[in-house]
Specification:
By secondary structure, the protein is an alpha/beta fold. It has two domains: 217 residues, Periplasmic binding protein-like II (D-Maltodextrin-Binding Protein, domain 2); 155 residues, D-Maltodextrin-Binding Protein, domain 2 (3-Layer(aba) Sandwich), CATH 3.40.190.10. Helices cover 31% and strands 15% of the residues. It is built from 14 helices and eleven strands. The strands form two sheets. Strands 3, 4, 5, 6, 7, 8, 9, 10 and 11 form a nine-stranded mixed sheet that branches. α6 packs across α14. The radius of gyration is 21 Å and the shape is globular.
Length: 422
């Protein structure tokens, strides 16, 4: 059985922490604090780079960060040839890349490609920090880029090997979390909204005065679920109450969100899981907080004889809702840095990206990836174009960003109050 990229399950069927829940959990375990302690800033002068230890920066759209480039961790030189008789080693989320894409890359560059997967960012960082594993390419969330840079786990990029960045949206050619894309290129993009079964639910969130309150409906008791993710769960509690700062440090706002979620559980006997991609298509759940990529792939999970048209996905037409992206990076201890750069370039080619999206449902931010193209090629059902992520959403959307260890622990504790009773 192939597990869905955001289901968060191990091979034995046990449930793991969901992907973006990691940062809050890491704060509670102390991992985030450990990584943050490695943070530093640098100033570059005629004599080179001088490094001074300071708290790790927390990038924000209105406070972007340019990460330092260390003399001890430089980018590779220009004009190098791909490594020969090589095995490119990719470290990625479970079921988050099309195997055909890997096979085709190997044929193109006459190399082998070896995929190793992880289920949580906690697990991935622990492996990388142990120094016992050597991978070439790593796929992290934006929340941990600063930690990876400060620990010198990823290398700065030589842009000459990645001309396909010109196919990416402009926002990712100078992202706030990595100005001048010194260490990252974009991978997937997604929104967080609400999925529902139109044949079981008579209401329509698009016609609702407060769509974020859509799950608070006792009529559908036992058929409502939230994502098993501390930031997403607390986030919908905030949005239901008109709180749009999803990184707020206001204790009163965090308490308001928590109280709303506790009320929701009492009202509908809430389910908490990351099975939105299957439980909505199957009809097991009728209303589910959902990731756009999961719903874009819903047609692959519909029972025989049931049209995908019964599945709906709501995200604010204004674009003011949770939006996020994952990235691709080159690891500093990899043995194939040239192939690694070429792989990043390969995944930012339109035709390759479309092949990849057809497998996992998650869009990539390339100018040629449009709703019309996705529908025309049969990748996306016309009834689910609401799952499409637009470039404008990264200007208007709400980001769940890295928190300080102390604040992250507060979010985690709040979510534990909600999820422990479910």
């Amino acid at each position: 059985m192939v597990f869905h990229p955001r289901e968060g399950r191990f091979g034995d069927g046990t449930t793991s922490v969901s992907r973006r829940a990691f940062l809050a959990g890491a704060a509670a375990t102390g991992l985030a604090a450990t990584l943050a302690a490695c943070g530093s800033s640098s100033t570059k002068g005629a004599g080179g780079t001088t490094t001074t230890t300071q708290p790790l920066a927390l990038p924000r759209p209105n406070d972007p960060v340019t990460w330092p480039i260390y003399q001890s961790n430089p980018a590779i030189a220009d004009g190098l040839q791909p490594e020969k008789n090589a095995t490119l080693k990719l470290f990625n989320w479970v079921a988050y890349i099309n195997p055909k894409v890997l096979k085709d890359f190997g044929k193109k560059y006459n190399c082998k490609v070896e995929l190793t997967t992880f289920n949580t960012m906690d697990e991935a960082l622990a492996k990388l920090r142990s120094g016992q594993f050597e991978f070439d390419v790593f796929v992290p969330t934006v929340d941990v880029i600063g930690q990876l840079v400060a620990s010198k786990l990823i290398s700065p990029l030589n842009h000459s090997y990645i001309p396909n960045i010109t196919q990416a949206w402009s926002v990712f050619q100078n992202p706030f979390y990595d100005q001048s894309w010194q260490y990252t290129v974009p991978y997937t993009i997604f929104t967080t909204g609400i999925a529902w079964r139109k044949d079981h639910v008579t209401e329509d969130p698009y016609a609702s005065a407060n769509p974020w309150a859509f799950p608070w409906n006792a009529k559908y008791k036992g058929k409502i679920a939230l994502l098993d993710d501390a930031r997403e769960g607390i986030g919908i509690g905030m949005l239901k109450n008109g709180i749009t700062d999803l990184n707020t440090s206001d204790p009163a706002q965090l308490q308001t969100a928590t109280n709303s979620l506790l009320e929701l559980d009492k009202l509908v006997n809430l389910h908490i899981d990351n099975n939105d991609y299957s439980s909505i298509p199957s009809g097991q759940t009728w209303i589910h907080q959902a990731w756009s990529g999961d719903m874009a792939a819903a047609q692959n999970y519909m029972p025989k004889g049931t049209s995908v048209d019964v599945v709906g996905y709501w995200f604010p037409p204004s674009g003011i809702g949770p939006v996020a992206n994952d990235t691709m990076t080159v690891l500093a201890n990899g043995k194939n840095p040239v192939l690694a750069h070429l792989f990043l370039n390969y995944l930012n080619d339109l035709n390759i990206a479309l092949e990849n999206i057809s497998f996992n449902g998650y869009m990539q931010p390339l100018t040629g990836v449009t709703p019309e193209v996705l529908v025309q090629q049969g990748i996306l059902p016309p009834s689910l174009t609401s799952t499409v992520v637009l470039e404008s959403m990264f200007a208007t959307g709400l980001r769940e960003l890295e928190l300080s260890p102390a604040l992250g622990a507060q979010y985690q504790q709040a979510w534990l109050r909600v999820s422990s009773g479910v």
